[in-house]
Structure formats: C-alpha cells, structure tokens
Fold each of these.
Amino acid sequence: MARAKVLLWACCMLFLATANADSSNFAKGIGVNWGSQVSQNLLPSVVVQLLKDNGIGKVKLFDSDDWTVKAFAGSGIEVMLGIPNNELKRLSDSYDDAQDWVKENVTAHTRDGGVDIKYVAVGNEPFLTSYNGTNTHTLLPAMKNIQKALDEAGHGDKIKVTTPQNADVYDSGTGGPSQGNFRKDIRNIMIDMVRWLDSINSAFLVNIYPFLSLYQNSGFPVDFAFFDGGAKPVKDKDHSYDNMFDANLDTLVWSLKKAGVPDLKIIVGEAGWPTDGNINANNKLARRFYNGFLKKLATDKGTPLRPGHMEVYLFSLLDENMKSIAPGAFERHWGIFRYDGKPKFPVDFSGKG
Ligand SMILES: *[C@@H]1O[C@H](CO)[C@@H](O)[C@H](O)[C@H]1NC(C)=O
Ligand SMILES: *[C@@H]1O[C@H](CO)[C@@H](O)[C@H](O)[C@H]1NC(C)=O
C-alpha cells in the first residue's frame, strides 16, 4: 500500500469509543481479514486500535507490506502474513528469493519480540478453476521454499506455512459430506500438499461461503445458509446437517481422511456475508449470518466431525472498492465495519450477545 493513499482518518478514529470492549479479553480465536484493494485504506495504527476495541485477536493480511505489519508489533494481535499469487513462480524458482522474503518480511518484524506471526499464507485461492492451472505446479514448491527459509532462520517451530484455498478444491458431487474428495484435476497435488502440511504440523486454510452457494443456486434453501436451525436437516451417514457451513467443512474433513491425514488441523481463512450488490447481500442478512456464526463459535460446538474450538478469520474488516466485480457487484461490500470504524450492523464478536 502506498503511504500517500492513506487518508488521515487517524484524528477522528482515535476518539472512537467502542463501548464495553476489553482488549485483554480477545474473543477466543476470532480473527478478521484485512484486504488492501482499496483506494484509501485506514492507517494501520487505526486498524490495530479498531481490532483491540472490538476484541478481535487475529488478523489475516493478503501481502506483507512492511508499514502495515510493523503496526502490529507489541499489540498482542496475531498476524497471518500473505504472499500474493503473482509471487508464487518467483518463490518456487528461487530459494534465494524465499530466503530474502523471510528476512525482509518475517525476521525484520520478529526481532525484540515484535510482531506475533504464526502463519504465512502462501498464495490466495491459487487453485481456482478460473486461473486455468497457472499456479498448479508453483504453489507447493513455493510453500516448501518459504518453510525451509523459515526453518533456517530459526522461526520454524513457531511459524508455519499454509495456503488459503477456496472450498472449490473439494466437492461431494451430488452426495453428502461423506462423498467428499479433492477435485479431480488437482487431486494428486492436493494430496501431496496436505500430507506435507501434516508433516510440518501446519494447518489447512479454507474459505467457506454459504452466501455464494445461495448466490449461485436459485434453488438453494435460504435457511441452510444460516445457523438458526430453520433448515430441513440433511442426513449423511450417522450425522445430520442443518447448515451449509458445517456440511461444507465436514466435506473437507472427509477429503482429508481419504488423503490419509484425518487429523490435519483446519482453519477457516474466510467466512462472511456481504451487505450490498445482490438481493441477498444486505445488512439484515449479514447480521443474521454473523449473529448465528459468532454464537456458534462461542459455544465451541464445531461441526459433527470436528467438534470443539474452531479458528476463524471473518471476511472482512472493511469494504474494498477496488476489488474485481467479475464474480458479482457484492465483491466490494464484504466489510463488517464502515470507514468511520462503526460496524454496519450490530455485531458482538464475543458471540454472547
Ligand atoms: C516482502 O513482502 C512485500 C509485500 O508483500 C513484497 O513486495 C516484497 O517483495 C517482499 N520482499 C522480498 C524480499 O521478497
Ligand atoms: C483462462 O482461460 C479463459 C478461456 O480461455 C480466459 O478467458 C482467461 O483469461 C484465462 N484466465 C487466466 C487467469 O489465464
């Protein structure tokens, strides 16, 4: 992000009083994505305060901009760094480049107990079918180079490489979650990757969007996109699913089982609901989604196959007015917060409200 593009929102933002939030008591496991495809982004220091005020303890970035990352030093907020897809080829071809990347974007920030980095997310949904296989053979070598460079720089025990995948890397055909498996055209690569992630003790990062299911299928049962139990349950083996999120995540669990890594940790890299640009994209339904989702997360109920605590990054912190609208006009309206730091709709990140 060019510094010049940043508006001086700081003056007004710093006086924001976001009531009854206690930054020492971060909502357990709740993270948020902060994208940079905007003409005028908020100052990083303002975002740090915004997250603290709302009890959000983790942030996921899409690059590793120095000025942005630096702002999280000593904040207590855990940062997931990102590496864009257009860097994959370079980093897969050259271990020297991977070493430089780690030096400049990790080591520089972790000195003196600076920024709390736990994951480096390599690529962003690199296996989308719309990329025509561009990243198929560069992703895993790039991930391995970065991890090796992290290991050699002494970060390997704490910082792991992962990669955010769209849920379209697996499917279950017309069956339930138990029919799940990785997509045929990339199955062998996915199997290699998840086994490697498992071997280094990392996690599978997946983006799951009930909104998109609704958007793409006019016949999709609306209630199944939410968490208030109104949907007709779908039975699969011994389990019953009353929401799409659980069914989707368990399809991944089955895919991992079939790949031989049944216990690989899963992190939800993106989940959220847009507020404009489509008939189902509005504050009312976004509120319904987040309300149900955050309550579910607070109970640590998990899914039928992965009960327990779930690590999740909401999508997204703010609207991004320069995102491609090829997928739909809603793409620029994923923000939970407006640029004045106020949420677009009432939301309680602790899930207790
Ligand atoms: C560090 O990350 C930034 C931002 O993502 C990138 O532009 C830069 O090329 C990276 N540094 C190295 C040495 O690769
Ligand atoms: C993928 O292929 C389609 C059809 O050939 C083309 O229109 C599109 O630009 C390609 N996308 C990329 C990212 O190469």
Amino acid sequence: MPSKSELLRLIPKVDDLINNEKITEAAQNACRQVVLDSIREQVDETRKRILLMEEHEAAELDAGRLVDEIILRVLSKNEMSLKKAVNATGVILHTNLGRAPLNRGIKEAVWEIAENYSTLEYNVETGARGSRYDHVQGLIAKIAGAEAAMAVNNNAAAILLALSTLAKGCKVAVSRGELVEIGGSFRVPEIMEQSGAKLVEVGATNKTHLSDYRKAAEGGVEGGGAGALLKVHTSNYKIVGFTEEVPLAELVKLGSEYSIPVIHDLGSGALIDLAKYGVSGEPTVQESILSGADVVCFSGDKLLGGPQAGIIAGKKSAIDKMKKNPLTRAFRIDKLTLAALEATLRLYLDPESAVSSIPVLSMMTMPLKTIEERSARLCSLLAGKLQDCTVFVEDGHSQVGGGAMPLQNLPSKIVNIKPARLTVQELESRLRGSKPPVIVRIHKDHVCLDVRTMRDEEFPLVADAFEEALNSVGDFEEFWE
Ligand SMILES: *Cc1c(COP(=O)(O)O)cnc(C)c1O
C-alpha cells in the first residue's frame, strides 16, 4: 500500500492534465481558463483528501476517476444557469417554468434582430428617430379592434402606467370582489399605491352594484368623486354563489356620465375565443374593447402565448398620454421581446392557424384522442425501458395555470410511474437533477407525467432521464464519497 506522500506525488501535473485527451475532448466547448480552473480545483481537492486520510487508509490513487471528476467540473461550470426544462406537470402557463413557450417558426425573426442593428427606434422613411411602439401598435389595434396600443415590460407595468397616467392623485373605484393578488408580488391595492392613485373600495366581496360605483363617482373629480374606474378580471379565483358584478359596458356608461376613464385589467388576454374547442371561461380582449373601455391591459405571456410583455390597448388619446409618461422609459420593452411579440402577433392574423401554431393554444385545445395516443406511446416507451417500475395511463386533468381559468380542469390522460426501489420523492428529485431537468407532479405514490405540456421530441429524453434516475442509485453517491 502506498504511503500518503507517495500518493501526493502520484497526482498528475496540471500541465499533463491539460493535455489529457479525454479532458480535451470532453471540454471542447469550454474555454482554456475554465478547464484550467477545474483542473486546479480538482487537484487541490484530491490533495486535501489525501492529507486528511489516516495513513492506513491510503489506497490507490485512481487517475481515471480524477479525470472524470475534472470533466464533471468543466461541464458544470460551462452550463448555463438559465436552461431548458421539460414541463411534464400539465400546467400550461407554469410561471416558474417561464409561462408560454414560443412558436419555433419565429426563431429567425428574433435572432435577426438579436445579431444585427435594427430599426428599433429609427424611421427609415424620414431618416429620423422613430418609436419602438410603432412596430406592434398596428397589429394589436387590428387584432383587438382598438384605436391604439402599446407594449411594455409586463402587465403589472401596464397597469401601473395606466393608473399613473390617467388617475395620479385621484381616487380610483375598485370592487371589493376584485382586489386580486397574483403570485404574491402583484396586488391591486399595492399597485394602486405605487401609481399615486387612491384606492376606493366599493361594494362587498360577493356583490357589487352599479350604484356602489355611482356613489364613488358622484360629484365628479372636482367634487371629490373618483377620477377613474378600474375593473380587474379575477383571473385566479372565482366568487361563486350569491354574487353580482357590474358588466364592463355599464361601467363605461357611468364613466362617460362623469367624464372619467374606465381601465380594465384583463390579466390573461385571450385574443381568440376557444369555446368552440371546448375551452371556455376567459373573456377576450376584443369583448373589452367593444364594451368601450378606455384602456385594456393584459399579459403577453399568458393566453396570448408570446413573450413576457404587458399590452395596453384602447383609446388613442389615453395611449398617447401614456407614451409621454416618464415611467414608460422605465417600463420600455426590449428589442428581443418586441421581435418575439411582433412575430407571435402576426400568427394571429389567421386565427384558425394561430390555434395550432401558438403552443399555448394548441396545448389547450389538444384533442383528448391525441393526448390518449401520445400518452400510450410514452407509456410503452417507459415500460419497455424501466423494468421494475409499474407504468400505466390513468384519466386525470391538466391546468391552464398562469392565473387563468382556475376552475377549468382540462381532461387528460396521465402517465403514472411507480418505482420499485425508490421513493417517489427521491425519484422526483433526481429527475429535477437530470439534463435537462424533468419537472413532474407527484400524486399519491406515483410520479405523474402529462403529455399535454410535453413535446414528442422530449419523450426519449424523459425516458433516458428516468432510466438514469432509477439506475444511478449507488454509484452517484459512491463517486463523491
Ligand atoms: C397575471 C395578471 C397580472 C400580472 O401580469 P404580469 O404580466 O405577470 O405582470 C395582473 N393582473 C391580472 C388580473 C393578472 O391575471
């Protein structure tokens, strides 16, 4: 058995390791510095490990293992923190997983703007400064049936901008049934405070009447009445039972009586009514515009199925004022987002094909027969690969998520996996650690996969991830013992 000092001498030199063929090949995409850092760190750690050993423990130095450890280090240093993940949860607009995946066909349009200079704020006809808001204004206006439109960073910014522009220093009436909180960080009362408007709660939690809004508006702005009316779509909850809310069109009538604007926070921003596909429950942007709201605000990355953005559509006079608000500079939309948004909106020019080309919409409207066929395919792929697991398909539900249609469960066929030698919690955690991470749900003692939010190309990846998660049982720990 070698002594500790012999072992220390046996550690290969950094110069030799940097020329090691296996390392060079595995680290092809890494820069030299990353490889060097990884070698030095691993050599140091090996040295420390040897020094900490009792003399009688000193075993062989495994040079092959040292090389493997260096390669693992290089690969992990070289990995992006923000990376693709497989969403097997069946939650279509999963906020933690990046909400809406985009249509593959818009890749070129986005990359073209990313790698080149562009006409972001340049008017090629006049040779003078242009506006970044012009690129999508016409499209949104046309699709939504609005006079004007603009896009900012997200819907929270859109609402803050609308309130700050149209109601700063004024009272704004909101129904007590609509004081929404979205994902912890967006709360109507707090946004209101930030905008400089003063929240006036009207009505009760379950019932708000037109007379409640009227009381708040009475006297007009000069007489101490509200300076704007805000209607908020309660996207992530429903008040059921003995309830009443005032339709937007009636609020618009009241607003014009007192010459105050009506703002509608629509939340998810459906541009297509999916009722004929059996998915209903979300009001459309077009309905709000038709009802006469001065301003309608909605997200770009919820039901619209585009990149993160906040869209404001409505009366030209209101939108023009917003463009001049200094806050707009802080909320302005980035050119990559703008390119992705414009390319996504163009798909809506043909609504029929939009339903199949926009991933979020095609997931929502995926026929149960298709889901059944795909689940069966994934099930047999997994069953063939994972010998000692129970794998079967069961009826279940997908969810729209993203604070839309909270009560609508979309019927689905769930692939269930019950591992024999691992707990489901352990399996779920290992799947999170695979490359790419596979995010699953646990139900009872099964790991559940919903094909609705997965792409066919991901099936083999997922099967490999399962195989590795189930088989790497001992050796992963042993490697780092
Ligand atoms: C989601 C949502 C928001 C926030 O939109 P973001 O684009 O996430 O900023 C605001 N209001 C409602 C009603 C929502 O559903």
